[in-house]
Write a structure and sequence with these properties.
- This protein is mostly helical.
- Helix content is about 50%, strand content about 10%.
- It has 7 helices and 6 strands.
- A two-stranded antiparallel sheet has the order 1-2. A two-stranded antiparallel sheet has the order 3-4.
- The longest helix is centred in the C-terminal third of the chain and has 23 residues.
- It starts with a helix and ends with a helix.
């Protein structure tokens, strides 16, 4: 009965030679252990524990919804600091959490704390107020807005009168 290639490889010394070749290659390319783990273990259990929970070179996957990038555990903090999918509190303070990549759009277009001009800007009120507090501004400055409206009406009446004469 003919043996499979895998069977031949397993019955020969191929796998130990392959492992030794890989180790030699890694040590030659990275002699100071900067980009690979150099620790050795005497039991398989200790090795597995190290590989799954302790090794700074173990592969992690980003947990921020939508990301899924893989990186070495030692790079987790760096990735977290730039991950565009990380949920952050709104920088304007609206108490919403927003993905880093959506923060600019949120603050510019949707945030209730974004500054908007007073609706009476065209006639002289130069105040800007958070969108969620516009009602307070309008209530607090009713008299000032009425004065502005009155001045605008008088100016318009004067211009209309001037055009008819």
């Amino acid at each position: 009965m003919p043996q499979t290639i895998l069977g031949l490889l397993e019955s020969s010394n191929f796998w130990p030679l392959r492992l030794q070749f890989a180790r030699n290659l890694i040590h030659r390319m990275d002699p100071n252990g900067v980009d690979h783990c150099t620790q050795t273990f005497y039991t398989r259990e200790l090795l597995e524990q190290h590989q799954t929970t302790e090794c700074s070179f173990r592969t992690l996957t980003c947990t921020h919804p939508g990301c899924g990038r893989c990186f070495a555990a030692r790079s987790a903090e760096n990735h977290d600091n730039v991950c565009e999918f990380k949920q952050l509190p709104c920088r304007l303070g609206c108490h919403e959490t927003v993905a880093r990549k959506s923060m600019e759009t949120h603050c510019r277009s949707y945030c209730v704390m974004r500054l908007i001009p007073c609706p009476f800007r065209e006639i002289g009120c130069l105040e800007e107020t958070p969108q969620c507090r516009l009602g307070d501004h309008l209530q607090d400055f009713v008299n000032e807005h009425l004065v502005l409206v009155m001045k605008a009406l008088l100016a318009q009446k004067k211009e209309t009168t001037h055009l008819h004469t």
